[in-house]
C-alpha cells in the first residue's frame, strides 16, 4: 500500500534525480528505490557490525584454534 507524503528536497538533488531517472516511472519511484537500497545497506552494516562483535568476543578462542590447526600441517 502506498501512502502519499510530502518531502522537501534541495534543488541540486532534484536536478540530479532528473538526470539519473532513466527507466524510472516518476521521481517518487526513483526516491523509493533509492531509499530501499540505502535501508538495505544500513541493515547489512548492522549485521556486519553484530558479526564483528561476535568474532571479536571470541577472538582469543578462534586464534588458539587456528594456531592448533596450523600445527598439524606438514612442512613442505
Q: What do the pLDDT scores average to?
A: 95
Shape: elongated
Largest sheet: none
Number of helices: 3
Beta fraction: under 5%
Structural class: mainly alpha
Please outline the helices and strands.
Blueprint: H1 11-20, H2 27-57, H3 59-71
Tags for this entry?
76 residues, mainly alpha, 3 helices, 0% strand, elongated
What's this entry about, in short?
The chain is mostly helical. The protein contains three helices and no strands.
Question: What do these coordinates show?
Answer:
The protein has 76 residues and is an all-alpha fold. Helix content is 71%, strand content 0%. The protein has one domain. It has helices spanning 11-20, 27-57, 59-71. The longest helix has 31 residues, at 27-57. It starts with 10 loop residues before the first helix and ends in a 5-residue tail after the last helix. The mean pLDDT is 95.
